[in-house]
Amino acid sequence: MSKQTPLGTIAPEIRAGLTRYIDHSLNCCVEPDGRKTILSGPEIGSLFALDRFVWSALATPFAPFRISGTMHLASEHEQGAPHERYSSERWKYTKSASPNPYCQDTLDLAAQLQRISHYAETFDPSKQAAAQLEHAPHLRLLLDTFFHHPIQNCGGSDINSPTVHGGLIKAEICNNFVAQFRQAMLARKFLRRERHNWHMGCRENLTNLRAYLGGLFTRHQSLTVLHLRLFHAKNRASLISAPVEDQHQDLRELRACRNVFFDRMRRKPALFTQKPGYVWAILPSLEGGYDLHLTLLFDSVALCKVLDDKRVEAEQAGTILEDHADQIGAYWVRTATAGEGGYLRGDKNGWLYGPDWVHGEVCADDVGRREKLQETLGYLPMRRALVRLKNEPEGEYFGMREGKSRAPRRSARQTKTDS
What we know:
The chain is an alpha+beta fold. Helices cover 45% and strands 20% of the residues.
């Protein structure tokens, strides 16, 4: 079984940003008016540590800890008659443990076991938020083994500490856990296929995204980037406490609004330019429900012409010209959600995505900003490689501009009402 995995191949500098992005998406409830609530949910970064542990456990067949014992005389005091105590000496067997120095893999495994309880406990299925998460097959197997093994009750860092399990010390419990997990991994005949199926779509989407962005910069000397968070309704079903059917209905409505908006966008070049590029993703928040992330990628030259035309129209009409990004947000609310939705701009709400995200103009020869744009947009398809929700239905959660126009022309709300 290969030691390298899609999680393991993610570069450390990208891994940190990806973790922050997914943590923020899952554990932050964002409202259309800009209010946000930070939840104390699972620490997604721990998945990388658990992933490393899986492949460290399989890299060597040897136990991570070496156990030794010594016999020594120990004094014991016994109570006799009142005010009388008797001392006696008995032979006592004492165990001690140390990391197995056989090879670097055993040493690495021993070091990781010192922290595995911390990494695993954030995904304790008895916690309401953690119980909603679905993990990659090998991580599911690891967590299931952990929470059905005595190791879950062996906290602390002292590997020589006694446990309540038949006189075993913590290091012996750890050795047994590793052996049991190895056996479980090797017994899963189709685990390689399961992992491939889990990650395949994410890898393909990431590859297609890189090619898509490269094509846009080949055709245009400069792109103007706008990130929007789009809401189909003011109130969305909680992905923790709401009935599953309510969650799925919310997602269906969001997807319907998305389809209408993309169809209208293609038909309104006076606002969106001719054939703008875009990347979208559906983001789940445990308490906030499903939202739509949209990154618009305008040809900067074409966008300047649209803005000039809008400026002339406003001057002739004697009206105040609304900011272009706000015009797009208002268009989403009006045409896609029949006035029931909302939007937030990434460039006006820095906390929405973080400091690494690229806003505004990006020139084709600006390698640094191009790479940062590709990196941050790459977080969108990789979310489902790290974690999914157990109640997430099948369907697309990430995409880019399609060449074919969609059929619906009416508001998604009107379409739902008519049906």
